[in-house]
Design goal:
The chain is α/β, with parallel strands linked by helices. The protein contains four helices and 16 strands.
């Protein structure tokens, strides 16, 4: 399976068009687009849905997404937008041999953004994973980063400690995060590949290839400035 992972679009739809051209040039045709939150910057639900439909149209691929902390709260409750656009916040979705599970929103911030959760609320949302039978093929998507992984802002770690607990307990094969604009990259931890594509609003994205329940290849890249 070939996955395009993006996050923190913040309404820069023009970047999607540029990304489509870059992927075509690279010969990478994603079977799935994973959007790890922050489609908008405090806009309404209609605007958020418009962006999702535009991603689906331009990339011509199935789209799964979670809301970010800057997205409208109503987006949490929407299950399907239509035409292969599905919200996986607090829900599982089986695609091929993989089970995807998402957690949208951020942790508590000083800015009182639109979708924020405490650590205990994160724990409650993640507790649904206990009922998943395919843990060896589990893929988690969160907007908030994991504590200790691509979560540093001005020297302070802002990631979720609950996510770090679940990372070690469940050992998913892949974990995709977003939210922190200052970070981008990927790493591995005890069999889990952690990918933080970085903000698409600045041109960052990640390409992921899965094969036989293994993350075969990851490339985190940036669109040309021009």
């Amino acid at each position: 399976m070939k996955i395009l992972a993006i996050s923190d679009i913040h309404e820069r739809i023009v970047k999607i068009n540029k990304l489509k051209s870059a992927l075509k040039e690279a010969g990478f045709n994603p079977e799935l687009v994973v959007v790890a939150g922050d489609l908008t910057y405090f806009k309404n639900i209609d605007f958020a849905l418009k962006i999702l439909r535009k991603i689906r149209e331009i990339m011509d691929s199935r789209v799964i997404f979670i809301p970010g902390n800057c997205d409208p709260l109503e987006l949490v409750g929407i299950r399907e937008v239509g035409n292969d656009i599905v919200n996986i916040h607090a829900r599982t979705m089986v695609i091929g041999n993989y089970v995807f599970y998402g957690v949208g929103g951020s942790g508590i911030t000083p800015f009182n953004t639109l979708i924020e959760y405490s650590e205990e609320e994160f724990r409650e949302i993640l507790s649904n994973i206990k009922n998943i039978n395919m843990r060896e093929k589990l893929i988690i998507v969160t907007h908030q980063p994991i504590l200790g992984y691509f979560d540093e802002v001005n020297g302070i770690r802002v990631g979720s400690r609950v996510f770090a607990e679940y990372l070690n307990a469940l050992k998913p094969i892949l974990w995709i995060t977003g939210h922190v604009h200052e970070q981008t990259g990927f790493t591995r931890n005890n069999g889990t590949t952690i990918v933080h594509p970085g903000p698409l609003m600045k041109g960052y994205y990640a390409l992921i290839e899965l094969e036989n329940s293994i993350v075969k290849n990851v490339k985190v890249d940036k669109l040309p400035e021009k």
